[in-house]
Amino acid sequence: MTETMPQPAVAPGAPATPRAPATPGAPGRAALLRAMEELAREHGVNNVGLREVARRAGLSHAAPTHFFGSREGMIRALAIEGLTLLDDELCAAQELAAHLPGRERLVADSVEFVAFALRHPAHFDAMFRTPSSAQGDDALDRARIAALDGLRALVVQVHESGEIGGDAETTFLQLCAMSHGVASLAVDGLLHGFGELAAADDVVERIIRAQIAQLP
Predict the structure, then answer these.
(1) Which of 72, 84, 95, 105 qualifies as a FRET site for 2, CA 20 to 30 Å off?
(2) Is the pLDDT of residue 88 over 60?
(3) pLDDT tens, 147-198?
(4) CA gyration radius for the chain?
(5) What is the pTM of this model?
(6) Under 8 Å CB-to-CB from 137, ≥6 apart: which residues?
(7) Distance between CA atoms of residues 94 and 106, nearest Å
(8) What is the DSSP letter of 24?
């Protein structure tokens, strides 16, 4: 089940996507988040400042503080938005793979997690790889758990069917750690040029299949 995954990087200095002037309220908040995402793709989440975001969004320098309170608040908002996207996209992938054997469904879910990270690298960084949103935020922690509840339920289902053994919760945590690690390597551009496996998505699927094949 190989999925062609788009390159996430946006070349620094590329022209910004034309945008209509933002208006106060929800459209202004959305414009700031899109500007934050664009800039984070170009420079990394940790290298984007609020003034730069406001400029890209076409809003006043005070707008990010008005909507998000701080730079950390904006990163948090991007993370929560990303977790909602991840939940939706993992659910869609599970529906498409519902007819497959249990281990194939686990492969499909894990491959989709990596594909999500490549499609949404700024969100992925904000969700899982940014110190300011790493801990101490109950709402963000709950959103992370909710986004992965579908995988937990899938592991339990496959375990109860007898297709995998061992402890279901341990298997869930193992798959989370494996998917996160592979996604981080893929986002950083470190999964290519491995002999005959020229494409990153081939390497991703090979790693995931090997790990899931080793489950008891």
Answers:
(1) 84
(2) yes
(3) 999 999 999 999 999 999 999 999 999 999 999 999 999 998 888 765 555 5
(4) 19
(5) 0.81
(6) 76
(7) 9
(8) T
